[in-house]
């Protein structure tokens, strides 16, 4: 019988586990698959070490947690649109966005977020595999919404529990109303027009706090792509959102993953926020990510104004 070994990622944080022994043969064993599913449910993030670095293995690991889900945005680059549905490519290149934080230029930087916030159906989980590891930067950060919720000031947490947050595909940083780091500067916008085309596009709605089947409350909100609150896009709404987000950032305990050859990282997108910390624009960086479908996708589309009035 195959077996895997698990240990905490970091004793200072209450989530995450590092696993060794994940091989293709091990994934054929249902007891191993069940253990991995349990670990993801309990710990939120799994770092697999010394795992075979192939697309086939990434897909096989991903399918332990659910079927692959086609990415909802057609323009997003795929590893192989026909052979590998649900596997997307995140890479630096001539058209990449460049930002500057504390005077340091960074490429492939993304602020704290959960994936598919702009869609009513989030993905359940994802697996990342680093194809080209940057020597200067390139870490991926994770924070657990259960821990954030539990540690927030109760008065501000109560405000978060009342919030249904709007998101769409306009992801331009110069349109982001809160949540950017201090000493942030946009150096070069993305060369694609996807965000501009979605400036007034439809908004998905997601609660800032939701309850897991286990009964745990999860803080699950971000500033990236945020367009306000359901029924309220006023300055006052953004001020309320910013207050809640600053409290979340104040208490979050972060795991920063330093990529090494042989790594694959799995995370529960309905529980965990993540951030791409960026890397040197002069270095190539490429990540492949699988998109995994699941039942805990709790968003809905914002009603058009005329429909909301009639309802």
Description:
Pfam families: TauD. GO terms for molecular function: 2-oxoglutarate-dependent dioxygenase activity; metal ion binding. The structure is a single chain. The protein is α+β, with helices and mostly antiparallel strands. It has one domain (about 5-310): Double-stranded beta-helix, CATH 3.60.130.10. The chain contains 7 helices and 19 strands. The longest helix is centred in the C-terminal third of the chain and has 17 residues, at about 235-250. Mean pLDDT is about 90; it is low at about 305-310.
Q: Please tell me how large the radius of gyration is.
A: 19 Å
Please give the largest β-sheet: 7 strands, mixed
Count of domain modules: 1
The CATH H-level homologous superfamily: Clavaminate synthase-like
Q: How much helix is in the residues?
A: 10-25%
Strand content: 25-35%
How would you sum up the global shape? globular
CATH class designation: Alpha Beta
Q: What is the helix tally?
A: 7
User: How many β-strand stretches?
Assistant: 19
* CATH architecture level-2 label: 4-Layer Sandwich
Question: Which descriptors would you attach to this protein?
Answer:
6-stranded antiparallel beta sheet, 7 helices, 19 strands
Quick description:
Belongs to the TfdA dioxygenase family. This protein is an alpha+beta fold and 311 residues long. 21% of the residues lie in helices and 30% in strands.
């Amino acid at each position: 019988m195959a077996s895997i070994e698990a240990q905490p990622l970091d004793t200072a944080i209450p989530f995450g586990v590092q696993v060794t022994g994940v091989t293709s043969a091990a994934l054929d064993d249902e007891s191993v698959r069940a253990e991995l599913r349990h670990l993801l449910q309990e710990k939120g993030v799994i770092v697999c070490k010394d795992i075979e670095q192939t697309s086939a293995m990434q897909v096989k690991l991903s399918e332990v947690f659910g079927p692959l889900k086609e990415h909802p945005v057609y323009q997003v680059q795929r590893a192989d649109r026909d052979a590998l549905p649900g596997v997307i490519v995140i890479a630096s290149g001539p058209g990449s966005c460049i930002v500057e934080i504390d005077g340091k230029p960074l490429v492939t930087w993304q602020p704290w977020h959960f994936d598919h916030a702009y869609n009513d159906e989030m993905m359940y989980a994802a697996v990342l595999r680093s194809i080209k590891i940057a020597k200067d930067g390139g870490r991926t950060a994770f924070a657990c919404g259960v821990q954030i919720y539990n540690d927030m000031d109760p008065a501000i947490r109560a405000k978060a529990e009342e919030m249904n947050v709007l998101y769409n595909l306009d992801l331009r940083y110069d349109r982001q109303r809160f949540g950017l780091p201090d000493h942030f500067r946009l150096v070069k916008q993305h060369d694609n027009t996807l965000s501009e085309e979605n400036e007034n596009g439809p908004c998905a709605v997601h609660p800032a706090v939701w309850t897991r089947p286990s009964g745990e409350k999860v803080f699950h909100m971000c500033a990236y792509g945020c367009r306000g609150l359901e029924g309220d896009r006023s300055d006052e709404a953004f001020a309320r959102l910013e207050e809640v987000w600053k409290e979340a950032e104040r208490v979050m305990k972060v795991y920063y993953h330093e990529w090494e050859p042989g790594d694959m990282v799995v995370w529960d997108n309905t529980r965990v926020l993540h951030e791409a910390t960026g890397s040197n624009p002069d270095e190539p960086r490429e990540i492949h990510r699988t998109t995994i479908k699941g039942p805990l996708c709790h968003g809905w589309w914002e009603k058009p104004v005329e429909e909301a009035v009639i309802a």
